[in-house]
Amino acid sequence: MSSSLPQGRRGSTDRGTVLLVVCGLFLIALLFRSGFFAPASWQGFCAKFHQNFIEQRRYMMLVNGLKATLHMTFFATLIGLAIGLILSIIRVAHKGGARIGPLAAFANLYITVLRGTPVMVQLLIWNFTIFASARDLKTLYIAVLAFGLNSGAYVAEIFRGGIEAVDPGQMEAGRSLGLSYRVTMSRIVLPQAVKNVLPMLFNEFIALLKETSVAGYIGIDDLTRAGQNIQALTLEHSQPLVMVALIYLALVLVLSEGVRRLEARLRRSQR
Amino acid sequence: MSSPLIEVQDLHKSFGGNQVLNGIDATVEKGEKLAIIGPSGSGKSTFLRCINRMEEPTSGSIRFMGEEITDRACDINRVRRHIGMVFQHFNLFPHLTVRGNLTLAPVCLRIMSPEEADLRAAELLERVGLLDKIDEWPSRLSGGQKQRVAIARALAMDPEVLLFDEPTSALDPEMIGEVLAVMKELAEDGMTMLLVTHEMGFARQISDRVLFMDQGLIAEEGPPEELFSHPRLPRTAEFLSKVLRTEL
């Protein structure tokens, strides 16, 4: 912490630390109650831990699960970005007077349906209805598609908000120079819109990371399912899932810190 | 080259049910400086913005260099290259440096190579007295500097005419002078200019002709000396007495 920080910022950082400590204590209390430390002694805990994670290299189950989770999140993010960008541009262009009624209607329907139904139901429909006969297709791809298409609907709304927040004078200035709508949009409006919504996009993908935990329902051994699988093998009910939760939490905290730094940086560059 | 640069006939524009322009007729010759004055809501800005179709006219005809630009077949993007516009709120591109603001359009439209555009940008910035700001971000410029960059950006396309939409209205009083100085220089270099303004003194000083607009029509027009000193209509006299009083 540099000493040049204004007092208010420093105060809020201190409050943040206190909050984090309180949450940590609460978590430990919760773990205690749930039986994470239930074996009467520390040795008992260690024995359980060894059985759950070390024996027969069971930690590899978690590692592979984490891989599947990250894999799904990463590719679904890419699909979500692409779809979100296209949908948002369709909606904005339609509002701006472009004659693309059917496309805009489709975009609206898409966003309404995919935001209006649970992602898990969508995942099940993709797997058991739409791709029911495509048995040779890896379920992982189906999950990536389901999460990506779902995320696209949310990203579209984020992008649309970002584009609409750009001063209309920017579009006018670009057009007045003789640039086409398309060029003005891509070279002048979108760069500003993306910069404005970058933190929101990252938050969306952090949420997506957690949402992929339902992938187990179509038989993908993601991080959550890996925890359940260990449970099934060791018949130990708390340690595996708590470990899974801690891994998610660590990931989310790291990513959130990234977003926080990004936001600070963006704020600085806007001055 | 006997036809005027811009020829507007019976121009109407309404927003919803709100009639803003009620039949404007005007011509602008090459090299002419036209000041458009009038009370707010009289349609001055709308008229100006129709000339490069920033606003879509409801009916009427606008000819630019002999070409009907209200025609659907007309490629408005090509026409706009020749009609520069300077806005009240500058509208510089905040994500680009001053250099980027000046070179984006000429390079994107393949009118110049990046190197040519760079040279041209430096030339134009020198002309508006801001060569030292070429690598600066717009957010670090004062209002007056921003507007001078905006003028240079419009000039980078080598337009036939420049449209100024209240270019000094958003400026702090001490910055108005530097922008007007640049515009005066442009006028002396023979640039065709259409200027919507509340700066009566400046309008009088640089314009060849003044249009007084009221209720969507050109109520009165004439050389600045005549219109400012001996307005024909009582409305014009009343408007002038109001704005000139506040200017003192």
Give the total of beta strands of chain A.
Answer: 0
Computed structural class of chain A: mainly alpha
Multimeric state of these chains?
heterodimer
**End-to-end separation of chain B:** 43 Å
**Helix segment count of chain B?**
9
CATH superfamily (homologous) name of chain A: MetI-like
Taking all Cα atoms into account, the compactness measure Rg of chain B is: 18 Å
Helix-residue proportion of chain B? 25-40%
| Helix and strand composition category of chain B | alpha/beta
The CATH level-2 architecture of chain A is identified as Orthogonal Bundle
Question: What's the helical proportion of residues of chain A?
Answer: over 70%
Brief overview:
By secondary structure, chain A is an all-alpha fold.
What is the topology?
The complex is a heterodimer of chains A (271) and B (248).
Chain A: H1 7-34, H2 42-54, H3 59-95, H4 101-116, H5 119-130, H6 139-165, H7 168-176, H8 181-211, H9 223-234, H10 239-269
Chain B: E1 6-15, E2 18-28, E3 33-37, H1 44-51, E4 59-64, E5 67-68, H2 76-80, E6 83-86, H3 98-108, H4 114-127, H5 143-155, E7 161-165, H6 173-188, E8 192-196, H7 200-206, E9 209-214, E10 217-222, H8 224-229, H9 234-247
Parallel strand pairs in B: 3-8, 3-9, 6-7, 7-8
Antiparallel strand pairs in B: 1-2, 1-4, 4-5, 9-10
Helix pairs in contact in B: 3-4, 3-5, 4-5, 5-6
Describe the structure.
The complex is a heterodimer of chains A (271) and B (248). Chain A is mainly α and 271 residues long. Chain A has a single domain (59-270), classed as MetI-like fold, CATH 1.10.3720. Chain A is 80% helix and 0% strand. In chain A, helix 3 (59-95) runs antiparallel to helix 9 (223-234) and helix 8 (181-211) runs antiparallel to helix 10. Chain B is of the alpha/beta class and 248 residues long. Helices cover 38% and strands 24% of the residues of chain B. The A-B interface holds A 167, 169-170, 172-180, 183, 187-188, 191-192, 195, 270-271 and B 52, 54, 77-81, 83-85, 87, 89, 91-95, 104-105, 108-109, 139, 150, 153-154, 157.
